[in-house]
Design a protein that fits this description.
Helices cover 48% and strands 15% of the residues. The chain contains five helices and four strands, in the order ααβαβαββα. With 127 residues, it is α+β, with helices and mostly antiparallel strands. α3 runs parallel beside α5. The structure holds glutathione. Glutathione binds next to α5.
């Protein structure tokens, strides 16, 4: 069973690499602002988890530089369980401006949050 899951994981990673989405292009100044905002985000994830791949692909599409933490290894694994409340991945840790920390589970919810927050910050139309 472990071998089958391992092979499936490698296939997922290979397909994701081959069909890697294009990242949207922003004006350098806007991208810098986005990079500053994404410093308060961290994705707890496993490399070959299909739900994590789904979120990472959306981050690539939106050109978001978000820190990744492998939740299979210490101390990230323990952090996720103790602070997030569940060992499940993907989980997005969001540090709000007022210092509050939110732990967002569910790949669809994470992608919706990222899209709502960042998709509008694209390269403005020229002319
Ligand atoms: N519905 C969830 C599914 C996430 C999920 O099943 N993640 C698996 C890894 S692929 C996991 O965290 N398993 C470990 C656990 O449940 O403790 C999503 O879309 O994010």
């Amino acid at each position: 069973m472990f071998i089958v899951r391992w092979i499936l994981g490698r296939i997922i990673l290979l397909l994701s690499f081959v069909f890697s989405p294009r990242g949207l292009k922003r004006d350098a100044q806007i991208q810098q602002q986005v990079d500053e905002q994404t410093q308060s985000l961290t994705l707890y994830q496993f490399a070959a988890c299909p739900f994590c791949v789904k979120v990472r692909r959306q981050m690539k599409r939106l050109s978001l530089n978000v820190a990744l933490k492998d939740a299979k290894v210490s101390p990230h694994k323990e952090e996720l369980l103790a602070e997030g409340g569940s060992p499940k991945v993907p989980c997005l840790r969001i540090e709000h401006a007022n210092g509050d920390v939110q732990w967002m589970y569910e790949s669809s919810d994470i992608n919706e949050y990222l899209t709502t927050r960042f998709a509008a910050q694209e390269q403005p139309c020229q002319g």
